[in-house]
Amino acid sequence: MAGRKRKDQTDPKVAVELERSYGRNLKRIRKGRGYSQEALAFRAEVHRTEISLLERGKRDPGVNMTLRLAGALGVEPGELLMGAAFIPSANGREAHFTYDPV
Questions:
Q1: Which CATH number characterizes residue 83's domain?
Q2: Residue 20: how many CB atoms within 10 A of its CB?
Q3: What pTM, to 2 d.p., does this model score?
Q4: How many angstroms separate the CA atoms of 100 and 64, rounded?
Q5: I need a labelling partner for 88 at 20 to 30 A (CA). Which of 2, 13, 48, 96 fits?
Q6: What is the tally of structural domains in the chain?
Q7: Strands in 1-102 per DSSP E
Q8: Could you say which residues of the chain have pLDDT below 50?
């Protein structure tokens, strides 16, 4: 196993909090517009449980979903990603997204 490290020898990765930050932003904007999860789901043409999973950080929001939700909410997609920071790794092979609370 030359070249491979055991799990206890690997460097810890930067925490990725996309799902939680995205969910907080989604819920805040949705409530600000006065939409229920069901109403937003109808406008975005997705199932209501998808909205719930995203808001609770249980689902990874993809680009297509972000565009659908932004359109349904009448906001720029970036508003759902507020507080984002992109951190490239030192070796140039990996990068991480981190999100600060808004």
A1: 1.10.260.40
A2: 16
A3: 0.67
A4: 23
A5: 2
A6: 1
A7: 84-88, 95-99
A8: 1, 13-16, 99-102
